[in-house]
Design a protein that fits this description.
511 residues, alpha/beta, UDP-N-acetylmuramoyl-L-alanine:D-glutamate ligase, Adenosine kinase, small domain, eleven-stranded mixed β-sheet, six-stranded mixed β-sheet, 21 strands, 46% helix
């Protein structure tokens, strides 16, 4: 397997080839060094605590018996797959569906009594960790050495304080006693809502089996998780006063913003007007930030939700201005975005027949419709990055950023944390990317070749293609079949690739 370095990195007359393994090796050390040159990154909005519960098939069966759940009612509910939790049966429905399908999902718990019942009756958590897209990405970026990581949180209990990364580069925006904006490490912060709401992360493992009856007899196709959430401050998207009121000052001290959390909105409680009000408030915040810092790059990390109202309002309102420069998502979220931007038929076709031809076509539809500078799709076994040509014209370094993000995510999957001290050489000796090319990557590169009219063999070996407007970078990723945790791996891919690209862009602009 060979990767052709493009002419921006070498003299045209000195064509060089390196393996994917070498590309991975080239990426890590250089990017870790580059990241230190960034000003900072702001991360919002949903930070919380995750209680990670590990379920085997036998544990699920015990829970069904303990709760005296009627199996016919359970079977019917799994077929309906409603997406909200009003009673314990709904929780078991979501958990069984994730086990059967091998796909992660997150459902809101609608009342406190059900939440408390689950806390009392589920198996004990094997760990409690910082969660939410914002919380996870902030800890990852802190470990990678971003000089200043400004994290947003609506609550800050003592339990949460103690689980934030200890790094001095992680800060909250707060006001001092003279009402001046200041930045304080979460462990030293005071004066925020100290409420504690645990998000219940129920992990299931690939190849585990569960037999409830003859109709419900499954082997889990992929390690994943079912998330059940009761968290009123996050479901209403309350904003930190300093983050909101002084966004202009904050924006001048950072290079990029990584934002998520819209999926947490409780559309049933807020109603359409409430949802529009919350989304409009965030979009106004982004506009103010960009006006204060025109070089700011703003990324939306998508998250799956059953609420079409939230998604349609988010993307329709986003069309009114250039709020988002970048979006990151997985396969399921790709379908949801397409359905929300006027491509419902295409999204439904993609969901029924998940071909890589349609995946690439769908990604291009989103980039064009939302006028994005970059779009990053992370699938199991490969990534696809699409960028406008005037965003960054160095395809080698775009590719290296993807390899770097795969290394960072592999480390998190293996040991539960990402760091800037990964023994990447040892990891690559144990899992050589050239010897572990996924079927999905092969299908992806064929699809890219078909759409761009380029050589399939060249794209397969280099990962690089283009059309008249965009670069399309395909990358085989490192696959960890049995991760310590599955939650947050997609967020880690997106956050690490995003900062790697910004670091390369900054280095190039300084020359």
């Amino acid at each position: 397997m060979y990767l052709l370095l493009d002419s921006s990195a070498i003299y045209e007359s000195e064509v060089q080839f390196v393996t994917w393994n070498q590309c991975y090796l080239n990426s890590y050390k250089e990017i870790i060094k580059n990241i230190r040159k960034l000003q900072g990154i702001a991360v919002g909005f949903n930070t919380n605590l995750d209680a990670i519960i590990e379920f085997r098939g036998k544990d699920i069966l015990e829970l069904i018996n303990q709760l005296k759940i009627d199996t016919f009612s359970l079977y019917t509910k799994i077929i309906e797959w409603k997406g909200t939790i009003n009673e314990p049966l709904d929780y078991v429905t979501g958990l069984c569906g994730c086990f059967e399908k091998g796909k992660a999902s997150e459902w809101l718990i609608k009342d406190k009594d059900t939440y408390n019942y689950l806390l009392e009756n589920l198996p004990p958590a094997k760990s409690i960790r910082i969660g939410g897209q914002a919380g996870i990405m902030s800890n990852v970026l802190t470990n990678l050495g971003v000089p200043k990581v400004v994290v947003h949180t609506t609550t800050l209990s003592e339990e949460m304080k103690n689980r934030f990364n200890k790094g001095k580069n992680l800060v909250l925006p707060l006001y001092d006693n003279k009402n001046n904006l200041t930045f304080i490490h979460p462990r030293r912060a005071k004066g925020l809502d100290e409420s504690l709401y645990l998000h219940l992360i129920s992990e299931v493992k690939k190849n585990d089996t569960l037999k409830i009856d003859d109709r419900m007899n499954w082997r889990c196709p992929r390690s994943n998780r079912f998330i059940s959430t009761y968290d009123p401050p996050n479901t209403e998207m309350h904003l930190m006063k300093a983050f909101s009121d002084d966004i202009e000052l904050l924006a001048q001290q950072i290079d990029g913003m990584l934002l998520s959390g819209f999926h947490m909105l409780d559309s049933e409680e807020l109603g359409e007007n409430g949802v529009v009000e919350r989304i409009t408030e965030i979009l106004s915040l982004i506009k103010r930030a960009k006006e204060a810092n025109p070089e700011l790059i703003v990324h939306l990390e998508a998250a799956s939700t059953k609420s079409e109202l939230i998604l349609e309002q988010l993307y329709n309102l986003s069309l009114k201005d250039n709020y988002w420069d970048s979006i990151g998502c997985n396969e399921r979220e790709l379908v949801e975005i397409l359905r929300s931007i006027g491509e419902k038929r295409f999204g439904n076709e993609l969901r029924k027949s998940f071909s890589q031809d349609k995946v690439v076509e769908g990604c291009l539809k989103i980039v064009e419709k939302l006028n994005l500078k970059r779009f990053h799709l992370h699938q199991h076994g490969c990534y696809l990055l699409i960028t406008q040509k005037d965003y960054f014209d160095d395809t080698t370094h775009l590719k290296y950023s993807q390899c770097f993000s795969s290394l960072v995510t592999a480390e998190k999957a293996l040991i539960g944390e990402a760091s800037n001290k990964l023994d990447y050489k040892l990891l690559l000796r144990e899992i050589n990317p050239d010897e572990n090319i996924s079927k999905t990557y092969k299908q992806l590169t064929r699809a890219v070749a078909k759409i761009t009219g380029k050589s399939n063999n060249e794209i397969f070996n280099t990962g690089v293609s283009e059309n008249s407007d965009y670069y399309l970078i395909s990358t085989p990723s490192i696959m960890i079949d049995h991760p310590v945790f599955t939650v947050g791996l997609g967020d880690t891919v997106s956050a690490s690739a995003f900062v790697a690209e910004l670091a390369y862009k900054k280095k190039k602009n300084e020359k």
